[in-house]
Amino acid sequence: xxxxxxxxxxxxxxxxxxxxxxxxxxxxxxxxxxxxxxxxxxxxxxxxxxxxxxxxxxxxxxxxxxxxxxxxxxxxxxxxxxxxxxxxxxxxxxxxxxxxxxxxxxxxxxxxxxxxxxxxxxxxxxxxxxxxxxxxxxxxxxxxxxxxxxxxxxxxxxxxxxxxxxxxxxxxxxxxxxxxxxxxxxxxxxxxxxxxxxxxxxxxxxxxxxxxxxxxxxxxxxxxxxxxxxxxxxxxxxxxxxxxxxxxxxxxxxxxxxxxxxxxxxxxxxxxxxxxxxxxxxxxxxxxxxxxxxxxxxxxxxxxxxxxxxxxxxxxxxxxxxxxxxxxxxxxxxxxxxxxxxxxxxxxxxxxxxxxxxxxxxxxxxxxxxxxxxxxxxxxxxxxxxxxxxxxxxxxxxxxxxxxxxxxxxxxxxxxxxxxxxxxxxxxxxxxxxxxxxxxxxxxxxxxxxxxxxxxxxxxxxxxxxxxxxxxxxxxxxxxxxxxxxxxxxxxxxxxxxxxxxxxxxxxxxxxxxxxxxxxxxxxxxxxxxxxxxxxxxxxxxxxxxxxxxxxxxxxxxxxxxxxxxxxxxxxxxxxxxxxxxxxxxxxxxxxxxxxxxxxxxxxxxxxxxxxxxxxxxxxxxxxxxxxxxxxxxxxxxxxxxxxxxxxxxxxxxxxxxxxxxxxxxxxxxxxxxxxxxxxxxxxxxxxxxxxxxxxxxx
Length: 699
Hints:
The structure is a single chain. This protein is an alpha+beta fold. Among the domains are: 18-166, no CATH class; 292-503, no CATH class; 606-698, Glycosyl hydrolase domain, family 39 (Immunoglobulin-like). 44% of the residues lie in helices and 10% in strands. The protein has helices spanning 3-24, 34-42, 46-63, 70-80, 91-97, 111-128, 136-156, 161-166, 185-207, 219-222, 230-233, 239-253, 269-272, 274-286, 292-308, 347-356, 359-377, 423-437, 444-458, 469-475, 480-490, 496-502, 506-512, 516-534, 585-592; strands at residues 309-311, 317-319, 337-339, 391-393, 606-609, 615-623, 626-633, 639-645, 651-659, 665-673, 679-684, 690-698. The strands form 4 sheets. A 5-stranded antiparallel β-sheet has the order 6-7-12-9-10. A 3-stranded antiparallel β-sheet has the order 5-8-11, with no helix packed on it. The longest helix is centred in the N-terminal third of the chain and has 23 residues, at 185-207. The termini are far apart.
């Protein structure tokens, strides 16, 4: 054969060899590869999708064909599903470019799979960042692109329910709960919320927990997960959840960056505080007698007393900066602010003070709170008298920061510290200080801001100039938690009008007046929560890419988010979960009796020493001298467990377990409550509502 013929034959063979590539580049001509691609695209679990993609790669190898970008797509999915990769590994690229490059052509049959991943990345980045989701234009940029990607994926792979879930088509539950005839509405709804939440917690422990205790989001995000676990962690006995939280906390507290007793990387207080506070605080609930906590709290107080704070030019004690570590304080004028977020740095110490009345902590916190009471009282820089600012500048002690407007301290790159910021942290600390000292002057800011809020509500919720009293009143929608804690602990009814007007915490309304309307409202709210947690299980588990946003997904179903009209079903109520804890805390409120959240000045009155399955418990009263709750057991036989009553003062108590319908006493007795023994043993009949009543006989 001549050299020319040899070259011609070689060229023909080469063309034959690459022929499958050209056929495979078009979705319409995917040929034998179409079955693999459909199986991969329709898979609802990433590990299954990865298996199909690897089968596709093998088939290409057998055919001596190449699908451009397939290897890179496989590597990406491996990383997405890897037990060792960070869940948000794509973060920088997706935020910088609003896309992710897979090396596929637009005509590639693999492009709809890539679109599915791009949509997920865009959604979770939007849900994560406070410089995106609060701003409608930025949010729309992310979510409109995500919607286009999901529409492309759903069209190509109609059996993929997860893609359709993002577009507003909920995934029904895999498990149906059996409900006995005659079970009360509140019990049905609360039990379902607890069951679904427990399922979510167990999934994370079983599928995401890593050997070092992390869940894939990094310590700074993983440490926050306990906050939505609290109805199970603090309300009931769940040994696996307790162990998982204990393991994460112990491993995090042993990390080098916390060796100095606080974070060693300079950043703002909200972020430097979370590793220590979110590791230590839950352990002070789960293992309160551990002497290690006092050592760690002492270190925090040392740092506060000797390093982080000082006397400002007005003579008051305040934090010197928003940015500090265990060995640095950034005194840059823009950052030199004490803020309403600073109780975050002392969260474990505040809990320790509440439980032990430690005098050193009390002295420091009391002096610090006087600084904020003074700042609230002052009419300065346009701030109305009686309104807490969100920042106090150092060293001059003036309200606000270096900016011209008192309500915008300009001490951070996002609106995190702008009014009202984390106002509830400071208000709860003021109420705690009132409780510990008996000094009513610490309630002055709460009372004056409650008045401003009521004025705005009674005026018809009008618009008002920024920085004005009415403008502040419009934004003070977080007062209720602190007011409710004070109200139910002391019995002081002076702020009841605000609690009744707000109506944003159904459990508080129920405790104020357990009439028909309040009870029905609570039933509806518990039902809304059950509806949210009943559907879209993947949205709270496998889909989550930022672990501080595990319960964030339902906000996508609100109007103006993923769909302009939203999702026209009851699950729109899930929007109240947009801030993380609000609606989910209803489970914690109802099962423990705490009218607010457990993070600051917790008032959880009971720990039910039994599993959070097939049981509903609605606390109706919780005070230092009495306790009552409605109980319903969904099982078929009597249930034996103990109620650990945490707020009762030491003394002799009488208890009764009474049939709510007949009034017949099913179980009764006497019990001595002391610091060491707080349990009341119960024998709860099945499938009939009973009321537990505990009253003090003698101190």
